[in-house]
């Protein structure tokens, strides 16, 4: 979860990630081109992320972490990611 940790540190450089728990089965969504080759694939993980913010307050963040793969198997392939926060409890 290096990407998620890096994103949280961008918001608050003193944040500490204490733990990550996957709350369920990841959702996988491949897409194929007309020849039947997978050229796009999304993988979404329902997560609980336990952090301590820069002020020392503990938080439990619930959300969805998704990787988006596009143009897979080509020279223009790319993988991006996004975090969608659903709830935050703590402090």
Concise overview:
This protein has one helix and five strands; from the N terminus they run H-E-E-E-E-E. It is mainly β and 91 residues long. The radius of gyration is 16 Å and the shape is elongated.
Form type: elongated
Using the CA coordinates, give the radius of gyration. Answer: 16 Å
Report how far apart the termini are: 23 Å
Query: Mind summarizing the main beta sheet?
Result: 5 strands, antiparallel
Please work out how many helical segments DSSP would assign: 1
- What fraction of the residues are assigned to beta strands by DSSP? over 45%
Low-confidence sequence ranges: none
What's the helical proportion of residues? 10-25%
Judged by helices, strands and strand pairing, the structural class is mainly beta
Count of beta strands:
5
Q: What average pLDDT do the residues reach?
A: 93
Instruction: List the helices and strands in order.
Output: HEEEEE
Sequence-ordered SSE layout with sheet pairings:
Elements: H1 2-11, E1 16-22, E2 27-32, E3 38-52, E4 58-70, E5 78-90
Antiparallel strand pairs: 1-3, 2-3, 3-4, 4-5
Question: Could you explain how this protein is built, in words?
Answer:
By secondary structure, the protein is mainly β. The protein is 11% helix and 59% strand. The protein has 1 helix and 5 strands; from the N terminus they run αβββββ. Strand 4 and strand 5 form a beta hairpin. The radius of gyration is 16 Å and the shape is elongated. The two termini are 23 Å apart.
């Amino acid at each position: 979860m290096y990407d998620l940790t890096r994103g949280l540190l961008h918001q608050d450089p003193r944040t500490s990630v204490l733990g990550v728990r996957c709350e369920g089965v990841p959702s996988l969504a491949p897409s194929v081109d007309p020849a039947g080759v997978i050229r796009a694939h999304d993988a979404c993980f329902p997560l609980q992320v336990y952090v301590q913010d820069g002020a020392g307050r503990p938080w439990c963040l619930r959300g969805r972490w998704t990787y988006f793969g596009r143009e897979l198997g080509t020279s223009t392939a790319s993988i991006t990611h996004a975090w969608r926060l659903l709830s935050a409890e703590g402090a």
